[in-house]
Write a structure and sequence with these properties.
The chain is of the alpha+beta class. The protein is flat and about 75 Å long. Helix 1 runs parallel beside helix 3.
Length: about 375
């Protein structure tokens, strides 16, 4: 068992802490700035959209999309650890009724399999041989228009040939390490290995792939490992000179155990302080940008309202009273104000009677008494 003892903080820890604090403030400011610019452009785009009257472009895009045939999807069952002689199922999932479904292998385009008059899903069964290892895609034709869809995304069928020897494996610096250590895993097979794959137990897909050197050895590196990297690792290789996805069996395993290392006492406090400062800086910048965005939104809304009024020919508003100015001929200035002669009443208003009520002009003297 490898024991890891905590080391004291290096002399430059205080300078590093200050640098981290400055970086946190800068990141908070940049994040708020990017957010503000994003909201600005979104509001501006919405204002332009309100002013737009012509929607023909959207109809054309919708019509072109409606004419396209949806692409199918392809899945493989089982998807891992398929050996020679096993039966696999390739399922082509159809978005609509199809008159013809075709499954092809990329390496052998002439050897395709067809099914007819299928809906929802078309299943293709293969009893694996060496030549079946490869990449597959499917496509279909629509029953009425006979249009052909695009090919599905590729699916790889890796077939394991147990007649080939498994690769060797080694782990350094050891199986028990502390957090943050770089781990090197080496796999080798000099005679048959074209590409080596690194596997981890309980993971369906390979973690990494590497080409070997002249001695037939491939090197994998796990940087800055943490306890999440704990597990059992194995290697396999794709066999050179044969079909591209014909694989060797898995080799021996190595086990990695990562123990967490304790940080120096002030690390948690410093991290919390940096987080608080970053949040405070972001909030301060947000308080600056939010009022500006609100003002811009109100101005944009007012501009759009004016444009809509002009477009619909809205009449200008009539004032309740019209004030008439008469130039003064002497020191007694008179102002005529049009008043509506409507005596107060408590009864419900009825339809207006003819003729209209007379207009009364009041003589208002603005000068002093005579």
């Amino acid at each position: 068992m490898l024991e890891v003892t905590p080391t004291p903080a290096p002399p430059g820890a205080e300078e590093q802490s200050r640098a981290n604090l400055v970086m946190a403030l800068v990141r908070g400011f940049v994040a708020a700035l990017v957010f503000g610019l994003g909201v600005f452009f979104v509001i501006d785009a919405l204002s332009l959209w309100i002013q737009r009257d012509d929607n023909c472009g959207w109809w054309l895009v919708a019509a072109s999309r409606a004419q396209q045939v949806p692409r199918p999807s392809l899945s493989l069952h089982p998807s891992q650890r398929v050996s020679l002689g096993d039966t696999v199922t390739l399922c082509c999932h159809l978005p609509q009724l199809a008159s013809r479904i075709q499954l092809c292998q990329d390496q052998h385009l002439t050897s395709c399999m067809d099914k007819y008059e299928m809906q929802d899903v078309a299943d293709f069964y293969i009893t694996t041989k060496r030549e079946h290892a490869g990449t597959y895609r499917c496509q279909y034709q629509v029953q009425k228009s006979l249009k052909t869809s695009e090919k599905s995304d590729p699916v790889e069928l890796v077939v394991t040939d147990l007649s080939f020897p498994p690769p060797g494996i080694s782990l350094s610096p050891g199986g028990h390490v502390g957090t943050g250590t770089n781990i090197t895993i080496r796999c080798w097979n000099k005679d048959y290995g074209a590409t080596f794959l690194l596997h981890k137990d309980r993971c369906s897909a390979a973690l990494q792939c590497q080409h070997p050197d002249e001695g037939g050895m491939a090197t994998f590196t796990l940087f800055q490992v943490t306890p999440t990297d704990n597990g059992t690792y194995r290697c396999s290789y794709l066999i050179k000179g044969y079909f591209p996805l014909l694989s060797s069996p898995l080799g021996d395993n190595v086990t990695l155990e990562v123990t967490p290392t304790s940080a120096h006492p002030g690390a948690a406090v410093e991290s919390h302080r940096n987080m608080v400062v970053a949040v405070a800086g972001g909030c301060a910048v947000a308080f600056v940008f939010i009022p500006l965005l609100i003002i811009f939104f109100l101005l944009t809304t007012r501009r759009c309202q004016r444009l809509r009024d002009k477009r619909h020919g809205a009449p200008p508003r009539r004032p309740e009273a019209v004030q008439l100015q008469v130039p003064c001929s002497d020191s007694d200035c008179l102002t005529y104000v049009e008043l509506q002669a409507k005596p107060p009443t408590t009864r419900c208003p009825g339809p207006p009677a003819d003729p209209q009520p007379p207009t009364i002009y009041a003589d208002v003297r603005t000068g002093g008494p005579h």
